[in-house]
């Protein structure tokens, strides 16, 4: 560059903009980007057959479940992170840093948004499930981090964890045949593992977090039961998830009334009083349903099935490992040793 | 902004660029690497298209140039004319030449970085740069050319 006429360079640099980009416009641009990304995800059906990895992944479950293929292109999340940071006019590190944020951090919303976009941009159902698994683990890790920091996991944090699990369940249930069963089994194992970690972390956490964590554990127990059922009766699980979806989106159905009457996470936590984790609909033979109290669709089964819960007298599905408080996996040691596996 | 010289058009360009990125990601046609360079290329194509759509507008004097004690209106006008000339000169380059000049001298990239981003050999990038600078010199520093010929 030494032989270049410096006057020419000076002339070119006349159009170099010294005015920084308007931060307000930059923020608006980033918001528009996120909005477009989400809208695109909703409007465009994903082209399964266009993905070259789709064919390779058809037998993924037979060849090692977690062997996630390395994409030849930039990782989608990396692209999104860099794109957002460029739009915000900040360094890539700013948005990348959000990936380690926890609820309550300034950058936590950026993290959730980038996750949401990444999920939306993931086309292949198995890739979606693998990502959903990672996000379930992420939410669990956030709760553990909060506990260790002495912070009570808020209802919103718990709700996000629950929603993430249900998303993973939905994706798993939407897979075909053996893939669905394998995915559900894997999700079950992960939730059991997370349950054990919660128990361990709870020992060192503040006693005030006990109520909140009891809710989380109850929610996990119910989800694991649903998953167990789903492994033997996929159709039933799909129906349960469908009803669950309606409960979670009260605007779409009359179930909204029950949400307003005590099912929101801000309400009471006891069975019969609207425990937010126990709003699961009692599908026949599901092994759970209304317990004691005046609720019909919102309670955790109480005791050992003393007659108030006809749903639990249904014929247990073979090997489903559910019943009246028989949480076999609660007996798992932190090392994962138990009689079943 | 360098090439467009208009903040609102530059914002449109940025918005369209990122929308195109999303569409590419959606179709699994995103960049294999060098995302930033990829975005530059999209933006640059957008600018090239906009050049085709609208002819260059001549610089016009207007009554809004301030004439207070602090400013020097005649200098401000001269600078604006020179900037306009630089943009016109860049516009006359080929798209690849223009992108090399923008990345090298306005964004401060090294030749090797430009070569990697454009997926061209280093020698090709240097040749593009050389030809572009020759053209720009002819257009932007005509006096010296005339002196040399004389």
Model description:
The complex is a heterodimer of chains A (341) and B (150). Chain A has 341 residues and is mainly alpha-helical. Chain A has helices spanning 6-12, 23-43, 52-57, 76-88, 92-98, 108-121, 125-148, 155-174, 177-204, 210-232, 234-248, 256-263. In chain A, helix 8 (155-174) runs parallel beside helix 10. With 150 residues, chain B is mostly helical. Chain B has one domain (7-55, 83-149): Arc Repressor Mutant, subunit A. Chain B is built from seven helices and no strands. In chain B, helix 3 crosses helix 6 and helix 4 packs across helix 6 (122-140). The longest helix of chain B has 20 residues, at 7-26. The mean pLDDT of chain B is 77. At the A-B interface, helix 1, helix 2 and helix 4 of A face helix 1, helix 2, helix 3, helix 4 and helix 6 of B.
Strand-helix topology:
The complex is a heterodimer of chains A (341) and B (150).
Chain A (H helix, E strand, L loop, with lengths): L5 H7 L10 H21 L8 H6 L18 H13 L3 H7 L9 H14 L3 H24 L6 H20 L2 H28 L5 H23 L1 H15 L7 H8 L78
Chain B lengths: L6 H20 L8 H19 L19 H19 L3 H12 L4 H8 L3 H19 L1 H8 L1
Let me know the number of strands of chain B: 0
Instruction: Give the largest chain-chain interface (CB within 8 Å).
Output: A-B, 40 and 38 residues
The proportion of residues forming helix of chain B, as a percent range, comes to: over 70%
- CATH superfamily annotation of chain B: Winged helix-like DNA-binding domain superfamily/Winged helix DNA-binding domain
C-alpha termini separation of chain A: 68 Å
Largest sheet of chain B: none
Rounded Rg of chain A: 24 Å
Average pLDDT of chain B:
77
Structural class of chain B: mainly alpha
Tell me about the biggest sheet of chain A?
none
Low-confidence stretches of chain A: 44-73, 253-341
Query: What is the overall number of helices of chain A?
Result: 12
The number of helical segments of chain B is 7
How many DSSP-defined strands of chain A?
Answer: 0
Alpha-beta content class of chain A: mainly alpha
